[in-house]
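Subject: two folds for Thursday's group meeting

Dear M.,

Sorry for the delay on this. The cluster queue was jammed most of the week, so I only got both jobs back this morning. I'm pasting them in the order they finished. Each block is the input sequence followed by the predicted structure tokens. Could you check whether the formatting survives your parser before we put anything on slides? The first protein is the one we discussed after the seminar.
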Amino acid sequence: MTQRLGTTYGGWVLPKEVLLNENSIVYSGGVGEDISFDIKLSAKYNCHIFLIDPTQKAWVHYNEALAYFSDKSKKFTGNIQTDYYAQIEKERPNFHKFRYHKVGLWNEKTDLKFFRQTNDNYVSQSLIENMFGDRFDMVPVDTLRNIMTLNGHTHIDLLKVDIEGAEINVINKMLDDGIYPKYLLVEFDLFLKKKDVNQTTQRLMQRLQKEKYVVLKNENWNITFVKN
């Protein structure tokens, strides 16, 4: 049995009897302008949630969410999903247990070009060249291990990565570092956007299988894995 939390665009599938509680640690890479999944996860399980995204529009959206849940008359700006308010308005997330890291996820600590889309209305940016346009910002990036060390964490219970092509480098580094979240939620953007010329997605899928990750749900390469 499964459950789906969040909007049609930004939601994810989890097991109905997911092993999460008020002590669980969730890392959510790729915030954008839709944190409906994180809001519902917080409201339902009261987890510790760590949002990771260097995008300025994502940072603005997070702060608008804080304002919205303090005063429902305040509205979101940006490119908001049509079902966003319906999904979140009745929830009671615990923002005291949220923390925002304004960095990008990568396989090392450095500064990288963060490429914008050609349409400025779209929030997503990518660390991968040729995913979007030629314009870019310079942003700090870091590994999951370093962010975990910063937060004093030795494990992650749930990791979500929707990071526009950087998922291959990030997850391979995660496995190299011996980090094995119980639940792993990945949008394989490099494959979806037909930019994976070296079949790195297929090789990562094989590696995850060897590490005993089982596919719970595949929604057009938005895949929920559970580790056995």
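Second protein, same layout:
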Amino acid sequence: MSATVYLKRGLMPKPSRKVVVMSTLCVCLAAIGIAWMVMNNQGEANHQPTNNPKQFNGQHSYNYLKDICKLGPRPSGSEAMAQQRKILKDHFQKLGGHVLFQDFSRRHPQTGENVKMRNMVVHWHKERQDRILLCAHYDTRPFPDEDRRNPKGVFIGANDGASGVALLAELAHLMPGLNSHYGVDFVLFDAEEFIFDAQRDRNLYFLGSTYFASWYKEQPPKYRYRFGVLLDMVADKNLKIYQEKNSLRYAKVVVKSIWKTARRLKIREFVHRSRHEIRDDHIPLNKIAKIPTCDIIDFDYPKIGSRRTSYWHTTKDVPSACSAQSLGKVGTVIYEWLKTVDKDKTLNRLR
């Protein structure tokens, strides 16, 4: 990710009080100058947010997704993961986030070597004791093992890995100005799926979220997470987000509150019925940490149908299969929900 670029404003020269023709000419030249400046800076302005943003921008989020994917595969312990971590740390800190890490490790199931792993935690408005957890995993599966043609090929993980991270990268621009009773923490989980053999490595799922949930239970901080949202696979071009069944089981009130926000915004991609039961990072958050957390995920990637059409864990999970519009819709729902969560009486009974 490159540094933030701000679009400069053109300044119209003061018109002459004596010569009307010169005044008109100055206005025209100023208009031409402004137009040239806008055209000249349009690419940069499209890539990075302008100053004092007031709404979530899906195109900016999609550009972050593409930047992350340029690093290539980002499995736990890899150099690309380390590069991503540094980029994100710098990004969040420049926007005013307080960044810290949780270090843990596991043995590599193939080599036996110790693999160092790190969760990233970003605090916004640290002084607020009641907090909301927004999370995603930022590792990628080592191989596209669901790819029938090339199960040992290159797995980029644009939707399954980068999409949640890219959404939070854009949302970070809006966090300093969030006026709410609640503080917000972003948590990026490492080792969501440190899987090299799906049959053998069953105990290597959700390592980062399990570590975080166990820490929260065993060493409770002074603040409390009242509820949480997991963002996973949210950039599908054919976006349809159903209410995930485990989320309804453990965090029904949170699910209903978010879907109510989507209905108010007339974002119909949030479908008001359940479809999949998914094991994801929200399971340890709900079961171990007891943080009511819902999973926002479009598991039908790219569309509802047979597994033969799925891009999940295949070489087809690339940026071109993702959409700025989808990121924009999910990001808008989350941001508007954060802005209005204080007013949700049913949800606030969980406090």
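Two things I noticed about the second structure. The chain has a mean pLDDT of 87. The two ends are 37 Å apart (CA to CA).

Cheers,
T.
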